[in-house]
Amino acid sequence: MTKQITYQENLLPLTREELVERLQQALSKGRFEHVCRVEQTAIELARLYNVDVERASIAGLCHDYAKESPDEDFVKLIHQRKMSPELLQYGNAIWHGVVGAELVKDELGVHDEDILNAIRQHTTGGQYMTKLAQIIYMADYIEPGRDFPGV
Q: What is the 3-state secondary structure (H, E, C) of the chain?
């Protein structure tokens, strides 16, 4: 059962419905379904651990926004934003979170650093993770569509 929430905190210049529509247009069917499941898992965890549900929804939906972006886009953004050159040693598995947060900021208008950091850290984790970042990290790993040993 999908739990719909209404965005009220002005954390981005879109309603939830508009965000979902933008994501549906930007992502493949499978990736879109994944981010929706991550959002729902993140909402459940946020309620359980007393974390802002709206932030959990936005971060869950946006965490893979850049996953299907071409490598050239990431490399260009790393250079333009003067991000750590060490990032160039990696690939999409790291870039879609760390660099992808910049695309979420630019293209979707999310400027809340807690949400952006949750997106940045959703694959690598981090030494200092907020509760929201921990929730997105786990929600991505345990969402109901995941099926691999140990999940």
A: CCCCCCCCCCCCCCCHHHHHHHHHHHCCHHHHHHHHHHHHHHHHHHHHCCCCHHHHHHHHHHCCCCCCCCHHHHHHHHHHCCCCHHHHHCCHHHHHHHCHHHHHHHHHCCCCHHHHHHHHCCCCCCCCCCHHHHHHHHHHHHCCCCCCCCC
